[in-house]
Design a protein that fits this description.
Blueprint lengths: L4 E4 L3 H12 L4 E4 L3 H9 L8 E3 L2 H6 L6 E4 L5 H10 L8 E4 L5 H12 L4 E8 L1 H7 L2 E6 L4 H11 L14 E2 L2 H30 L4 H11 L7 H11 L21 H12 L4 H13 L2 H11 L10 H34 L5 H7 L11 H10 L10 H24 L4 H13 L6 H12 L33
Parallel strand pairs: 1-2, 1-4, 2-3, 4-5, 5-6, 7-8
Antiparallel strand pairs: 6-7
Length: 482
């Protein structure tokens, strides 16, 4: 009996996905570039299962039912292209290659088009949830060649996480690179969520002088509120974890954060598309700033930086901080959905935003209770341009505003950096301001560069230039796109 699907790449994510597929009754053929890794897997985690080993790509292809489905769980970039180049001569028309890595979506666009010419279908699928998710139910975000989806759908929806209503956290996202784009935005929101939580942690630790046991208790309680989420849950576990000497392990970890690029890609795409993804971009810059450890140590000494204690009732501050974190988190998701909407319009993906929220409801790193509310919001209004305009989220933002401003102001007063939480508030202030000072900015651009401007008392699309000094001339340089 031949295999239902082949998986190339036996690192932890690949192994766990294979074991997950096996648990759900699918016969999987496993391959790795090094034969030893295949043997180790078959004699170790896969022992006693129906998993089949393949020691060459030809053997992998020969052991699969048609149309063959081969999933690449390898490092993004050239490695994926290398495997595709080696697989194509071995495959038949109608066979399917799946990339399950953290690939930049333009690469998926390119691969879909190139393989289509050869009659081979390609799926670029985001997979989120880490090692545990891969093993017991990840969030899966597939896009690419729509003709391939019916053949892959039963497997992916079987192994994916399920909501409390047993809905699979996996559905077709859209053509070409849509799946990997949505996964990229997921990771961007993940960057934002993590940064917001660390800012709340620093406010409690340095501003309120709380112990780790006290902070752990706060996060446990917060996880029983609208903040209920995987990241809040694991933060409480981390804060309670003690090293061998009984001290909190988290304080022994060097404060320089790594990144693999997906948050950066999110920010770059937002800039390219003109979407104000301020919170997520600040979270990326916060990681960049953290990497300047030696410079920060020198600068603290040079400036004599000292953070002041936050005065007042600790419990009142904790509740204000909870509301500020919740409101900021809503802005993080709202900005992410704004970016997906623009990308969907530019690429003709026709994304279903309610379905995206459902896919993120379980299995993935940013899974949280209020994703159900996001799904409801887009079910009510599929064309919702700003998540905060939905009645549920608008109510939270309005009710949290006073506490949010209080925390933001106090952080600046005492010198606790909270770049993402404060940028979220500033974004909402700008988004809800009908008239911004860009009129002066346009006047400046016209003054020094004759870039023209529109007038509020004239039809939109009619451009004007002023000879501001009497010496600049009356000829304009260019018009701008608004």
């Amino acid at each position: 009996m031949k295999g239902d699907i082949g998986v190339i790449g036996l690192a932890v994510m690949g192994q766990n996905l294979i074991l997950n597929m096996n648990d759900h009754g699918y016969k999987v053929v496993a391959h790795n570039r090094t034969a030893e890794k295949v043997d180790e897997f078959l004699q170790g985690p896969a022992k006693g299962t129906n998993i089949i080993g393949a020691y060459s790509l030809q053997e992998l292809v020969d052991k699969l039912e048609s149309p063959r489905k081969i999933m690449l769980m390898v490092r993004a970039g050239d490695v994926v292209d290398s495997f595709i180049d080696k697989l194509v001569p071995l495959l038949d028309k109608g066979d399917i290659i799946i990339d399950g890595g953290n690939t930049n979506f333009p690469d998926t666009n390119r691969r879909v088009a190139a393989l289509k010419e050869k009659g081979i279908h390609f799926i670029g699928s985001g997979v989120s949830g880490g090692e545990e998710g891969a093993r017991f139910g990840p969030s899966i975000m597939p896009g690419g060649s729509p003709e391939a989806w019916p053949f892959v759908k039963p497997i992916f929806q079987a192994i994916s996480a399920k909501t409390e209503n047993n809905e699979p956290c996996c559905d077709w996202v859209g053509n070409d690179g849509a799946g990997h784009f949505v996964k990229m935005v997921h990771n961007g929101i993940e960057y934002g969520d993590m940064q917001l939580i660390t800012e709340a942690y620093q406010f409690m630790k340095d501003g309120l002088g709380m112990t780790h046991d006290e902070m752990q208790s706060v996060f446990i309680e917060w996880n029983k509120t609208e903040l209920n989420s995987y990241l809040v849950e694991i933060t409480s576990d981390i804060l309670g974890y003690k090293d061998t000497d009984g001290e909190p392990l988290v304080e022994k970890i060097l404060d320089t954060a790594g990144q693999k690029g997906t948050g950066k890609w999110t920010g770059i795409n937002a800039l390219d598309m003109g979407i104000p993804l301020t919170l997520i971009t600040e979270s990326v810059f916060a990681r960049c700033l953290s990497s300047l450890k030696d410079q920060r140590v020198e600068a603290e000494e040079l400036f004599g930086k000292k953070e002041s204690i936050v005065e007042g009732d600790k419990q009142v501050w904790i509740e204000a901080l909870r509301q500020a974190l919740l409101a900021s988190k809503i802005i993080s998701y709202a900005q992410g959905f704004m970016l997906m909407r623009e990308a969907s319009n530019e690429n003709g993906w026709d994304l279903n935003y309610g379905n995206v929220a459902l896919m993120w409801r379980g299995g993935c790193i940013i899974r949280s209770a209020f994703l159900s509310n996001i799904r409801d919001a887009y079910d009510i209004d599929p064309e919702l341009s700003f998540l905060g305009s939905d009645s549920y989220f608008k109510g939270i933002l309005e009710n949290s505003m006073s506490a949010w401003r209080k925390v933001a102001a106090k952080s600046m007063e005492v010198g606790i950096p909270m770049p993402s939480m404060t940028s979220a508030l500033t974004f909402l202030d700008g988004y809800t301001t009908a008239r911004l000072p860009a009129n002066l900015l346009q006047a400046q651009r016209d003054y020094f560069g004759a870039h023209t401007y529109e007038r509020v008392d004239k039809p939109k699309g009619e451009f004007f230039h002023t000879n501001w000094t009497g010496k600049g001339g009356d000829v304009s340089s260019t018009t701008y796109n608004s």
